[in-house]
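ok here's the first one, seq then struct tokens
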Amino acid sequence: MPSLVIAARTVIAVPPGPADAPTAVLSPGWVRVEDEVIVEVGGGEPPVAPDLRLDEGMLVPGLVDLQVNGFFGYDMVDAGETGWRTVVSRLPETGVTAFLPTFITAPVHVQAEALERTRELLPRLPEGSRVLGVHLEGPFLSERRRGAHNPAYLVDPTPGALRRLLETGLVRLVTLAPEREGGMDAVRTLTEHGVLVSVGHSDATAEQVARAADAGARKVTHLFNAQSGVHHRDPGVAAQALADPRLSPGLILDLHHVAPAAARLAFNAAPGRIVLVTDAASAAGMPPGRYELGGEPIDLPADGPPLRADGTLAGSALRLDAAVGNALGLGLDPAAAVDAATRVPADLIGRPDLGRIASGAVADLTWLVPDASGALRARRTWVAGREVWNAANGHSPSTEGRAHERTGP
């Protein structure tokens, strides 16, 4: 691949220096890419004439979403190859260059079969967002905090169940309730197998969450939603998520799942630890109507997130580029807002080569620009230095490029 130099009005990047240097706002800034990798980053004007100049918005790392149940009309757990190809090739429209498809609660054997189907189809997927593995959200969840999950399928995390799910090699993240019978042992087992463990759909006390972190848990799924909270005398999951520096709370920043004041509280209490996620359902990217989540119907209203028939929130219709825009709208520093959707989730999932504009990182990039309504939108997106989305022509230059990345734990 030839060298590519991009100059931009604003670049959210890790400037030259130590690898753990903080992300900074370079305005203006520039990036040079060679052989799918970022080889130089700098502020001011580039040393050579740029191949591309971006005079508005900001150039940021490709966004990393650790919780995507579905998108564009397809539920990932039971989507066929057409659905997977659609989601993978179109997620760059939202700035997402890497993601974890999320399978919600189902019988263990059904989840295992879905993992096996996924393993077979991954090598056939087109160019687009990287599939980093699979996130299992359940079935080891609390009945009291089940949210939209089917209570008939909730079970304890037995050694046999874990073994069946892990044998495909695709599981990278598991959300569970550590207070269930065998929950702490499950955290240890999953951690030993290189799987990121997230506390979620849980009625645990703060003390139980701390014990889960002692056992290896490092994330909390959709902060404030479907979990015990921040009572001042009876702290639960949310309180420990904010107070414990070992934990990275996920946040669905559609301003419906979490009110603005609570979102500000989260960012202020846990700076550098918040992970923006979409929790997108199949309704995301689609008009109002009826869709599915985990094989059961959900309805997307004209305004707001998808709902079960009883009014329970059922995932979201959020785009991750819009979530970054919402974070900026809350007054968050641009570097911190971008980090929450890039560097923080990439590091958490064990991919420090992703989620940053830095020398040596993979050249996954997206150009974010406010649209006519002021919402932040991806105008162009690159994966490994190759453009895969350009809003000017409404499609990717290629949907049949390199074999899609497949990563196991």
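and now the second one, same deal
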Amino acid sequence: MEITTIIIALVVIFIAWKVLTGIVKFALIGAVILGALYFLSQAAA
């Protein structure tokens, strides 16, 4: 399950990198990383 979460996060980050520009790009990438980490921490608990 963790591998799937990481792969989905990487795909979303890749799409954001190609589509978005500037500050919005980095904000969305940060949100995706934080969301993935939160999801993984909930799964581990």
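notes on #2: Helices lie at 2-19, 22-44. The CA atoms of residues 14 and 29 lie 9 Å apart.
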